[in-house]
Amino acid sequence: MPASDSSSLKLLVTGGAGFIGSNVTLALQERYPDAQLTVIDDFRSGDFKNLRGYRGDFVAQNLAALDWHAQFGDEKFHAIFHLASITDTTNHDQFEQVHDNVESFRRLLKFAQPSESRIVYASSAATYGAANGVNSEADEAAPANVYAFSKAIMDNLARRAAAEQPSWKIVGLRYFNVYGPREAHKGMPASMILHLSRQMKEGKRPRVFKHGEQKRDFVYVKDIVQGTLRALETQESGIYNLGSGQARSFNELIAILNDSLGTDFEPEYFDNPHAHYQNHTEADLTNARRSLGYEPQFSLEAGVTDYMRWLYPA
Questions:
Q1: What are the pLDDT digits (tens) for 118-155?
Q2: For the chain, which residues make up each domain, given as ranges?
Q3: Nearest by Cα to 83 from 39, 49, 146, 147
Q4: 147 flagged as catalytic
Q5: Catalytic site residue from 10, 54, 186, 201
Q6: pLDDT band at 1 (very low <50, low <70, confident <90, very high)
Q7: Strand 238-242 to strand 170-175: parallel, antiparallel, or no bridges (unpaired)?
Q8: Which residue of the set 147, 220, 294, 307 is catalytic?
Q9: Hey, which CATH number is domain 8-177+221-244+284-297, 3.40.50.150, 3.40.50.720, 3.40.350.10, 2.30.38.10?
Q10: Is residue 152 within 8 Å of residue 276, measured between CB atoms?
Q11: Would residue 182 be called left, alpha or beta, if left means φ above 0 and alpha means ψ between -120 and 50 degrees?
Q12: Does 175 qualify as catalytic in the annotation?
């Protein structure tokens, strides 16, 4: 989809006022300046301030109850980026998590199926559960919480729909531990990079679970946006990991934050209260590289430096 041909493009982003959604929306607007952009969000985990400079339409609706045909008629979107969900993994209301996340997706698929609007949706690395090594898309889902379970069911629905209608392109993206601009509104579910940096800026020791050797595939949101937009071009349906491809420890992260912020804090360790906790996340990027042409551009050092400049401008 070359930018020069964007005047006839119709693109829709659900959850477009949220963290990843707003970054994707603004990147689409920049790449396709003449496209007709529409965002749907109910502001449960979004904020209008994230869309400063946005020039498109906005529909304030709860996707789990949205009548797509009443709202849009037979309008055909070239692509729908489905990034809306209950993103708080600590919300353990099983009905709410599964109903809202799965039924929203089911309604969207039903609307998009006749016109075969390309679907790019947010899955999650949480579907892998408590893994100890590299996470590959071929691994069986092992969700440890109901949020991850809801994402695994969405993956099942996507695979079934793509298999039944091979000409319809449906791309799932398993986002790993994303951090970066426009996440602060999320509160507690925001990245530990944001929370630790705030503690350190306040002159406090950064608090992490004992003994800081847990590892995460921290991926900068600019890389996530790059990978998400690449899903517009792929010629095959599939589910792909999007991460940095590297697992870095909490202790390493604190050292990087110290270097970036010009501080010298030792971590403060405390007991992990969570019975089910992902001690290791690490994305196998083989399939994303092959099918999407995805290649992360930001190391953890480079991403944190860029983010701290954005968070705490001089």
A1: 999 999 999 999 888 899 999 999 998 999 999 999 99
A2: 8-177+221-244+284-297
A3: 39
A4: yes
A5: 186
A6: low
A7: parallel
A8: 147
A9: 3.40.50.720
A10: no
A11: left
A12: no
